[in-house]
Amino acid sequence: MMTEATQIPQIQLMWDWFINMVTSIQLSDVLDMCIVAFLIYKMVGLVRDTRAGQLVKGVLAVLLLYWIAELFGFGMLRAVLAFILPYGAMVLLVLFQPELRKAMEQLGRSSISTISNIQLFGPGSEAKEQERQKTQQLIDAICESCAAFSKDKTGALIVLERETKLGDIISTGTIINSDPSPELIGNIFFHNAPLHDGALVVRENRLHSAGCFLPLSQNYEISRMLGTRHRAALGVSEVSDAVVVVVSEETGAITVALNGQLNMRLTPAKLKELLQRELIHETEEKKEHNVSKILKRVKK
C-alpha cells in the first residue's frame, strides 16, 4: 500500500515530466498539431455531411468484430476477417471516390490558389468601377430574364463562373461569347430553341457558352420533387464555387444553387440581392483581403 511519503516523489516526477514536455514544445510542433487538428476537423465535416458516415460505421463494426474474434478465439471468423481486411483500403478508395473527389476540389478552391490572379496593388478605382458596372449589367439582365421566365414558366439554367474554372463544362456547349442582354438570354432558353435544354455558362461578365451539360448531384437526400435542372445546378455547385440560377419549367419558381445548397422560391428582387452580394460585395471583400495580406508580407 502506498504511503503519503511515497506519493510525494511520484507527484514530483509527474510534475517534472509535464514541465519538461511543455518546455520542449517548439513552433514546428504547434504547427504540426494545428495541421493535424484541421485535417481531422475537415474529415469529420466530410463524413458528417455525406453518406460516408454510414460507411465509417460499417468499417468500425468490422474492426470491432475482428477484436471480438481475437478476444474469444473465434478461429474461422478471425481467418475470414484477416483475409478481407488487407483489401479494405482499396475498397474504401472505391466507395469513397465521390467524397474524396469533392474534398480535393474544395481544397483546390482555397484562397491560396487565387493569389496568382490578383494584381499586387489591385486595379485602379476607375477599372474597379467599370468592372462593377459590367457585373451589375449582367445581374440586371439575368434578373429581368428570370422574372420573364418565371411568369411564362420557361425553364432556364444559368451558371455564373467564379474562381473555379469550368472549361470541361464549357467544352460541352456552343461558344457564343456575347455581352449579356435579356433578349439574348430569352432567345437561348426559348422553347424548342437549339440550346434551350442545356446550361448557359457566364464567364467574366459575358455569356460565354450555351447548351452545356452539367454533372448531376450525388446527394441522395434531394427531394424527388426536384427535376434534372435542379440536380444539375446542385451538382456543379458541389464541385465549384459557381453561382447557379434555375427557373423551374413546371412551377416557374426561381432557385439559386450555391456551395451545395439550394436557395429556393426567390423573387426577382431577392435574386438580385443575392447575386449582388455574391458577385459584387463578396468578390470585392475577398480581393481587398488578399491584397492586404500580400502587402503585409511585402512589408515584412
What do you see in this structure?
The structure is a single chain. This protein is 59% helix and 13% strand. The chain is of the alpha+beta class and 300 residues long. It has a seven-stranded mixed beta sheet. A hairpin with a 2-residue loop joins strand 6 (254-258) and strand 7. Helix 2 packs across helix 3 (52-72), helix 3 (52-72) runs antiparallel to helix 4 and helix 7 (125-152) runs antiparallel to helix 11. The N and C termini lie far apart (61 Å). Mean pLDDT is 80; it is low at 111-121 and 289-300.
Helix content: 55-70%
How many independent structural domains? Answer: 2
Write the H/E string, N to C: HHHHHHHEHEHEEHEEEH
Strand content: 5-15%
What would you call the shape?
elongated
Quick structural gist:
With 300 residues, the protein is α+β, with helices and mostly antiparallel strands. Helix content is 59%, strand content 13%.
